[in-house]
Structure formats: structure tokens, C-alpha cells
Amino acid sequence: MSKVLVIGAAGQIGTELTVALRKLHGNANVVATDIQEPSNSPVLDGHFELLDALDGNAMRHLVIENDIQQIYHLSAMLSATGERHPIKAWDLNMHSLLNVLEIAKDEELEKVFWPSSIAVFGKDAKKEQCGQYEIQHPSTVYGISKSAGELWCKYYYEKYGVDVRSIRYPGLISYKTAPGGGTTDYAVEIYQQAIAEKNYTCYLNQHTKLPMMYMNDAINATIDLMHAAPKQISVRTSYNLGGMSFTPSEIAASIKERVPDFKIDYVPDYRQQIADSWPASIDDSYARRDWGWQAEYDLPAMTKEMLLHLNALFINDYY
């Protein structure tokens, strides 16, 4: 069984992906890392080490010492936070990826997973059913770094044979782990506030439609992509991935069906401009064709599960 390294394991994606990978590869075969040790996190239920993704020497030593064959590199500064710290965002997002690619090349690793984002698309891209090869003119440093990163992944595959695989994630929604500074974080916060306070002030306007996905689908897609045979992978930049698309008013209406006294206000801030530059829906036909991608959750199913689990967590915390 291949030994796996997860970089950024304590984040929103990394936490749930680490748990899923340990179920597949065995607890002893997945090394979770992050720049800080998280508190009360399932990533600590197995091998965990501190790692700064910008420290290429430390990363290389960890890979060699633990006989790592696959890397899932999830460490990044997201869109909203990145606009406040653009140089730091570029440095983290790009240099950490290049560290991983260089190590994968030199140590002849089996596979690398690196997530891209719908943020690679800008205002010039098609808004509805944005295609796999739609024009990319990103308007955020996060999107710029992801667009450049896609080309680096393709370069290392074509020039050195590094088997890098990637997904352009939409906004991701989970009850297990807090989001980490993205423009789509409202779609997690709104459920939390519906349970805790019965009201929410949204930083996007009510008609802002964006691509979204329940975390279970995102984890399954990631694992399915990494398990696909190399001949199935036709896209060596990053695959479009779609789940559902909705507006803040639509997710609020979905919540009100189960929490009738829930109220929402809209006070758009700087994140509105970021959201306006992104597609409203995604054409993921390449992922469907190449490796059988299929989302399981729609908005009603996700709302039911989010509220059910968050309500249980809220009651346990309260009492």
C-alpha cells in the first residue's frame, strides 16, 4: 500500500480528506501535516507532523524518511484572505506547489494531487456552464496563482512525467470543519447561524449565483480522480467540477423550509466584487466523460444533512 502525505491536513478539505485516505490506505500509511497542530481534530488520530510548506528541505526530508509515494498538497491562502495579503498569498500558493513538484520529480513519486479553483475564471469567461477550456482572466491573486499553478502541473507532467492530477473546486460546504477565508464561506456560515442565532447577515447580495458542492462529493471526486487509470486522464491542467449552483436567497429559502423563523439580511462587502467575477455554473463534462464523475447532493439534500448535523453539534456544545 502506497504511503501518502497530506499537506495542509488541518484545513477544510484536508481534515475530511485525511480521514477518507486513512480508511483507504490504512491509518499508518497516511502522514498528515500542517503548519500548526490543530486542536481536537481527527487528523491527530494518526501520524501527524508539523510542516511549513514553504520549507522545501523539510518537506523533502519528510518524504524520504517516511517513504512517501503520493502527495495531496492542499496548503493555500484562499481568495478573500489573499486579497488582503496578495504577496504572501502568491508566495505560499506558488512556492509550496513548486516544492512539491520538484520533490515528486526527483524522488519519482507515484502521484500528486493539487487543487485548483473556479477562481481561475474571470469576468471574460462564460457565466453559465463555463467550459473546461474557457478563457482565464482571473481577478484575484488566488485565481492568478491557481491559473499559473495549473500550467506548472501540466509542465511537470509533460517535461518530467510527474503524474499530477487536479480539480477546480467550486465553493465547498461542510459541517465538520470551518472554512478558511474564501469568498464562498457564507454558504457554511449561513447554516451555522441558522442553528445558533436564527439569523444571518450575508456579505453577498441575494442574487449572486455561484457553483457550490457538498464536501462529501468533493472528497469522493478527489479519490475517484486519483484512482483513475493514467490513460483516463485527458486534462493535465485541472478538471472542471460541478455540483450545484445557487444564490444566497435560494439557500436561505431552503433553510426556511426547515427553520421557518430564520431571517437573512444582505450587506455586500469587498467579497461581492470577487464573486461577480466568477462563473455562475460549471460545465464538467470532461470529468464525467473521463473518470465517471457524478455529484450525489443537490441543495435540498445538502440542507437537510447540514442542519441535522449542525443541530446535533449545537445541542452538544450548549449542554
In short:
By secondary structure, the protein is α/β, with parallel strands linked by helices.
Describe what this molecule looks like in 3D.
- By secondary structure, the chain is an alpha/beta fold.
- The protein has helices at residues 12-25, 56-65, 79-84, 86-106, 141-160, 186-196, 215-227, 248-256, 271-276, 285-291, 299-318; strands at 4-7, 30-34, 48-50, 70-73, 111-113, 116-117, 164-165, 167-169, 171-173, 199-202, 210-214, 239-240, 244-246, 263-266.
- It has a six-stranded parallel sheet, with helices on both faces.
- Helix 1 crosses helix 7 (215-227).
Which helices and strands, and how do they pair?
Layout: E1 4-7, H1 12-25, E2 30-34, E3 48-50, H2 56-65, E4 70-73, H3 79-84, H4 86-106, E5 111-113, E6 116-117, H5 141-160, E7 164-165, E8 167-169, E9 171-173, H6 186-196, E10 199-202, E11 210-214, H7 215-227, E12 239-240, E13 244-246, H8 248-256, E14 263-266, H9 271-276, H10 285-291, H11 299-318
Parallel strand pairs: 1-2, 1-4, 2-3, 4-5, 5-7, 6-8, 8-12, 9-11, 10-14
Antiparallel strand pairs: 11-13
Helix pairs in contact: 1-7, 2-4, 4-5, 6-8, 6-11
